[in-house]
Design goal:
With 82 residues, the protein is mainly α. The chain has one domain (7-77). The chain is built from four helices and no strands. It has helices at residues 7-16, 20-24, 28-44, 50-80. Helix 1 (7-16) packs antiparallel against helix 4 (50-80) and helix 3 (28-44) packs antiparallel against helix 4 (50-80). Keywords: Membrane, Transmembrane, Transmembrane helix.
């Protein structure tokens, strides 16, 4: 049976390092993509546009990590009854 994912841990990991929560949830490619996107946004702060996209992607990553963990847990509950 697949292990349960803590939605709180996923959200905190993604808040600390964007994409880490997705990797914790098993969404490796999505997590790596978000990490790379935030690196690019960090570089774009030189021309100021990064200051707009950096917090948007940060918030998306935190919410997505939380919701993905919840979906994984719900799917496991339906499938295995636990």
């Amino acid at each position: 049976m697949p292990s349960q994912k803590s939605s709180g841990v996923a959200a905190v990991l993604s808040a600390l390092i964007n994409g880490l929560g997705q990797i914790y949830n098993g969404q490796i490619l999505k997590g790596v993509f978000i990490i790379l996107l935030q690196v690019i946004n960090g570089a774009l702060t030189i021309i100021l546009i990064g200051y707009v996209f950096l917090p948007i992607v940060w918030l998306y990553a935190v919410i997505d990590a939380y919701r993905s963990a919840e979906k994984i847990n719900a799917r496991n509950y339906r499938r295995y009854g636990r």
